[in-house]
């Protein structure tokens, strides 16, 4: 746990202590804990989590957060709250962890789920849920549809507590405001958790039926199949990311002066999007837009991209086609969505002096306005072989100066807030092996201009103004 932030460590320990207090009554002598049911449910949850740790199965086992929540909710319906909280602990402590620190994450997961299951079980008991489940024998049938009320309410509480804890640990670990850390968590999880609650209710009713616990296991089968489908989706998403990385590497190889630029533009775009409060799904697409914004350079002749000296008018026109080339390259990639418009329009300017179509103001797509600011910021702060990178505050001031004419002021302000909150750790561009240009030459067009350089003339810093010998980026 030493690798975790101090505030996050303290919060994890507090939640773990809360979990211990939740389960303690079940361990006291004379508590009347139904150990047989508790043991079966705990063992079943443990068995469900173990394959994720087994090298034989590797990453092919569809284990993910929420895979076995129906089982935990069934425990919340079948057991008293302290006993139900115990069910989640062993499986959480041995489950697969994707990122370090593993120990802290396992302790957090066990404490979080124990507290969440305890809360759901307490609400279910308070509303008379256990009596509504019925029991063995024909004279103790489940009280339907009333049993749905305590079950759905317990699932709602499960979702509320789980997302509240998720957002709080994110705020503690990343030093985010609670409102931002919690933003969007509950709407995304509420629907799935209600479905898990209904599956858990079905399992609990079957558990109390004359068929016994074995029949309840069949509820897990469709949940496991849906989990497998979900895992397939993530594998497909990973393949998409691999395709994007391949495209970016191809651009970096072709235009060595801007190597690493695309990844940094993607990071800066995410920084802006988070400050704007975009939904996580849009943030991911915007990151792709930032990473792929210069993919059209693959259609530009290498001799033009790597030319030393000023561009001819014809060469300028060729490079100005790279947004359209990029749009054509990614046109058929459906998952990119809004990113395609950003790739096409990231060189438009608010005053209409940009390219390829001279769009103005809000006619420029939102993603394109974000990427334009991120692109300019990284170009100014990146170190090239022929000039050092500018300090971040200087680059931000230059962006502010050009806000309203070249850049969207809202995006510039969002970037400034994000940098103030998180800082910036952009690495130097990997072009040190290039021969430095003679004194008196600089990058023609400056911001994000790539590798072509030309004579310096009086102009605003890094070619942000229209008076510069601006080279298309």
Automatic annotation (TrEMBL):
The keyword GTP-binding does not apply. The chain crosses the membrane at residues 68-95, 107-127, 147-173, 185-207, 213-231. Residues 425-473 are annotated as: Disordered. Residues 236-431 form the HD-GYP domain. Its EC number is 3.1.4.-. It holds the Pfam family HD_5. One of its GO terms (molecular function) is hydrolase activity. Residues 258-380 form the HD domain. Residues 431-442 have a biased composition (Basic and acidic residues). CDD domains: HDc. It is an enzyme of class 3 (hydrolase). Keywords: Hydrolase, Membrane, Transmembrane, Transmembrane helix. PANTHER family: CYCLIC DI-GMP PHOSPHODIESTERASE TM_0186-RELATED, LIPOPROTEIN. This is HD-GYP domain-containing protein. It comes from Streptomyces poriferorum.
């Amino acid at each position: 746990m030493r690798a975790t932030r101090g505030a996050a460590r303290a919060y994890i320990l507090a939640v773990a202590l809360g979990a211990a207090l939740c389960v303690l009554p079940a361990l006291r002598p004379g508590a009347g804990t139904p150990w047989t049911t508790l043991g079966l449910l705990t063992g079943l949850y443990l068995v469900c989590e173990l394959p994720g740790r087994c090298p034989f199965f590797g990453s092919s086992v569809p284990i993910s957060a929420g895979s076995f929540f129906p089982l935990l909710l069934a425990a919340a319906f079948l057991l008293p709250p302290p006993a139900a909280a115990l069910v989640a602990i062993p499986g959480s402590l041995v489950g697969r962890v994707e990122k370090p620190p593993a120990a802290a994450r396992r302790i957090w997961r066990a404490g979080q789920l124990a507290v969440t299951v305890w809360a759901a079980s307490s609400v279910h008991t308070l509303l008379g849920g256990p009596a509504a489940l019925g029991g063995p024998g024909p004279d103790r049938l489940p009280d339907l549809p009333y049993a749905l009320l305590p079950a759905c309410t317990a699932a709602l509480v499960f979702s509320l507590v789980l997302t509240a804890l998720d957002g709080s640990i994110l705020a503690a670990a990343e030093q985010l405001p609670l409102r931002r850390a919690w933003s969007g968590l509950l709407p995304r999880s509420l629907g799935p958790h209600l479905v898990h609650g209904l599956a858990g209710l079905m399992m609990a009713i079957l558990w109390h039926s004359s068929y016994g616990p074995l029949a309840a296991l069949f509820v897990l089968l469709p949940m496991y199949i849906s989990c497998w489908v979900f895992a397939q989706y993530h594998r497909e998403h990973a393949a998409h990311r691999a395709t994007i990385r391949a495209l970016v590497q191809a651009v970096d190889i072709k235009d060595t002066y801007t190597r690493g630029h695309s990844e940094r533009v993607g990071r800066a775009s995410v920084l802006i999007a988070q400050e704007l409060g975009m939904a996580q799904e849009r943030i991911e697409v915007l990151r792709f837009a930032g990473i792929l914004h210069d993919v059209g350079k693959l259609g530009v002749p290498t001799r033009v991209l790597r030319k030393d000296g000023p561009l001819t008018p014809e060469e300028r026109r060729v490079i100005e086609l790279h947004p359209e080339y990029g749009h054509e390259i990614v046109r058929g990639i459906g998952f990119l969505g809004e990113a395609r418009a950003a790739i096409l329009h990231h060189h438009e300017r608010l005053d209409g002096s940009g390219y390829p179509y001279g769009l103005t103001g809000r006619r420029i797509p939102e993603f394109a306005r974000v990427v334009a600011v991120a692109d300019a910021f990284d170009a100014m702060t990146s170190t090239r072989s022929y000039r050092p990178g500018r300090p971040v505050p200087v680059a931000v001031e230059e962006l502010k100066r050009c806000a309203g004419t070249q850049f969207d002021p809202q995006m510039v302000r969002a970037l400034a807030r994000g940098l103030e909150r998180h800082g910036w750790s952009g690495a130097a561009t990997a072009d040190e092996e290039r021969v430095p240009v003679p004194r008196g030459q600089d990058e023609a067009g400056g911001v994000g201009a790539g590798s072509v350089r030309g004579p310096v003339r009086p102009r605003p810093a890094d070619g942000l103004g229209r008076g510069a010998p601006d080279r298309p980026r």
